[in-house]
Amino acid sequence: MAERASAVAESIEQAAALLARRPRCVALTGAGLSTRSGLPDFRSPGSGLWALAERLPDDQARLMTLQGFKEAPEAFYARFRPFLAAVLSAAPNPAHLALAQLEAAGYLQGVITQNGDGLHQKAGSQTVVEIHGSLATATCLRCYRSDAGPPLWQALCARGEAPRCRHCGGLMKPDVILTGEQLPWRAALKARTLLRESALILIAGTSLPGGPVLAWLEAACDRGARLAIINLGPTLLDPAAEVVVRADVVDALPAIAQRLRGT
Ligand SMILES: [Zn+2]
């Protein structure tokens, strides 16, 4: 136990030392960052809705596809309601705050996140790229008008009805991607640019899903970018990382930010 604690402390020092050299650095975060803010931890590869879909039986996993959502929006929202209720009341935790501090101090160019919960912005991060979309807005599937998400989710949590468009009565879909949907292209473009410009990528609270994000990271490694990974469980890219901190992000990220104060 003591051995493990000292290995963690040493890896935190190494991660701080990498950042202290002030390479261009971007953070990539996932569901593990928000679990300590009370959002469900689905404990499976991927994050958010994708992970929720992975642990559902086949007939229910279909709910998390766009087609399934259109076929049975009431069932989708019944499933999704506890998560939305948790998001509405969630506050940023020390891991979110530490990343905002690192950005303000010039150590980070921004955060690319798989989370759509808005907690990085609430913590004060300025550049946040939400590659799986955001719950801050929703779009009508009939007239494609966009609307603010939280009032819709509040009404859903209070009354249990699937949100409807206030212009045409069409079904409102949260602006997060469902299983099998493409990444939002603007966010994907911005994320790729940030990753391409980075010499160091700080991966925090994600076991890394497959798909485009993993391919972008592999391309970054091929270009010579270094990886620092902070995650409780193993990730696919651990063997390629310069340093792996096997600890909870709410402990490790504030510890790293603390060491960088005054450097
Ligand atoms: Zn509409």
Q: Helix proportion of residues, in percent? A: 40-55%
Distance between the termini: 31 Å
CATH architecture of the largest domain: 3-Layer(aba) Sandwich
Shape: elongated
- List the quaternary state of the chains: single chain
> How would you write the strand order of the largest sheet?
3-2-1-7-8-9
Order of helices and strands: HEHHHHHEHEEEHEHEHEEH
Structural commentary:
The protein is of the alpha/beta class and 263 residues long. It folds into 2 domains: 1-39 and 92-132 and 183-263, Rossmann fold (3-Layer(aba) Sandwich); 42-89 and 135-176, SIR2/SIRT2 'Small Domain', CATH 3.30.1600. 44% of the residues lie in helices and 15% in strands. It has helices at residues 2-20, 48-54, 58-61, 66-71, 73-89, 94-104, 119-123, 149-159, 185-196, 212-222, 249-260, and strands at residues 25-29, 111-113, 128-130, 133-140, 146-148, 172-176, 200-204, 226-230, 243-245. Helix 1 packs across helix 11 (249-260). It binds zinc ion. Zinc ion binds next to loops. Zinc ion (ZN) binds at residues 140, 142-143, 145, 165, 167-168, 170.
Topology:
Elements: H1 2-20, E1 25-29, H2 48-54, H3 58-61, H4 66-71, H5 73-89, H6 94-104, E2 111-113, H7 119-123, E3 128-130, E4 133-140, E5 146-148, H8 149-159, E6 172-176, H9 185-196, E7 200-204, H10 212-222, E8 226-230, E9 243-245, H11 249-260
Parallel strand pairs: 1-2, 1-7, 2-3, 7-8, 8-9
Antiparallel strand pairs: 4-5, 4-6
The protein binds zinc ion (ZN).
Task: Provide a concise account of the structure shown.
By secondary structure, the protein is an alpha/beta fold.
